[in-house]
Amino acid sequence: MSNGLRIGKPLCLRCRLEDRVDEVLSYDGTIREELVAVRDAILAVDNPRSGHVWLSRSPAVALLKDLAADRLTLSHAALDELNPTPSLIHLRDLLIGCGALPERDPYIARLELAIKREAASLSDPHDAQLLRSFGTWRISRRARRRVELGRGGATVVKNAQSHVREAARFLRWLRQQGRGPAECVQADVDRWLEDGVLARFRIREFIVWASEIQAMPRLVVPVVGGNGSPSRPVDLEQRVVLSRRLLHDESLDPADRVAGMLVAVYAQPVTRVAHLTLDDVAVSDDEVTISLGNDALLVPEPLGRLVRELPWRRQVGIAGKLPARAHWLFPGRQAGRPQHPEYMRTRLAKIGINCRQIRNAALFELARDVPAAVLADMLGLHPTTAVRWVERAGGNWSNYAAVRTRSVTND
């Protein structure tokens, strides 16, 4: 830490950066112990100019000053009370990465905040309490379980938030009709659904749950698109053309090429691809393997060469100077985070990849030639999902579902 003003020769950019950081983080001439690692991370940036830009432009700097002066409590709870802007999210990640705040799952935290915000938007206290209970005991609990199983935090939470949001909208609308949940009748539900907007059918989860706890009568909400059947895939020729482009088009970003091939050839969902780590990849002089399920899969050339390039990619700026919590194969822009699945999906769409359709095509082709047992272990699929795809592709491995499911349960 610098002491007072420097005199003499003009200061270099890095020396000036040190003075500026100390000005932000010092209070009464000292820096609180929890923020020392934050100071070190900012000063360790490869290009000090980027540190100056961040200090000049980021709204997070004002929050850092408040934290340094203890005007803002250094806790997740205190930050949760603020508007969740991108700068606040970045600051939180920075504080977690430096050890100033404890780890927590960012997706579940986002869902819990959404539940709190939607409940607060309801004017009737009974409705607010009912929505909080629904969000906490039905939606959040299930989402947490799925995230812990590695089923894609971003997508799981986005879907969970939509159920809470639609339940809040329905409760608000119901009060406008002069009724509370206990007085709701089937005609109300039918009227809510009559405009045909698919999002409105998401109230089914809430109504089923509310009737189970006797907070609402038993009412009927039709299931829309809930049969779990895979959508129609693109044809094989399109997939082959796309795969050749990903392998040989040097104008594309290597990360996009690898991510696209994992979707188009290895039938991986984008949420799984985004959360792969370097521990999932084994590189030797002779070969590259990747673990997507229980088995390590050989990655042929030239895809193997592209995968070899990825471990050298790292986050830039302050985020790249934090202790690594996980060595992501596709690092994101925020400190300690992987590339967001929606951002990855958008990047792949720009080069002509419809992730759902291409993945379905890959699964369909694999299921024609690979038994369900192998398909599940190789790609990390649930046994029932693997059986469904094999049956759809023309095989019949229904007996495997019960056997493998029992095996998974007993593991």
Overview of this protein structure:
- The chain starts with 12 loop residues before the first helix and ends with a helix.
- Strands 1-2-3 form a 3-stranded antiparallel beta sheet, with helices on one face.
- Strand 1 and strand 2 form a beta hairpin.
- It is built from 20 helices and 3 strands.
- Helix 1 packs parallel to helix 3, helix 7 packs antiparallel against helix 8 (125-148) and helix 17 packs across helix 19.
- It folds into 3 domains: 13-97; 106-212, no CATH class; 240-353.
- With 411 residues, the protein is mainly α.
**What class do helices, strands and sheet pairing give?**
mainly alpha
Percent in helix: 55-70%
Q: Order of strands across the widest beta sheet?
A: 1-2-3
Low-confidence stretches: 1-5, 225-232, 396-411
For the termini, the CA-CA separation is 53 Å
Order of helices and strands: HHHHHHHHHHHHHHEEEHHHHHH
> What is the average of the pLDDT values?
81
Radius of gyration equals 26 Å
How would you sum up this structure in a few lines?
By secondary structure, the protein is mostly helical.
Please name the defining characteristics of this protein.
411 residues, 56% helix, 3 strands, disordered N terminus
What layout of secondary structure does this protein have?
Blueprint: H1 13-25, H2 36-43, H3 48-57, H4 60-68, H5 76-80, H6 86-97, H7 106-120, H8 125-148, H9 153-176, H10 186-193, H11 203-212, H12 236-248, H13 254-264, H14 270-274, E1 281-283, E2 288-291, E3 296-299, H15 303-309, H16 341-350, H17 355-369, H18 372-379, H19 383-393, H20 398-410
Antiparallel strand pairs: 1-2, 2-3
Helix pairs in contact: 1-3, 7-8, 7-9, 8-9, 9-11, 12-13, 13-15, 17-19, 18-19, 19-20
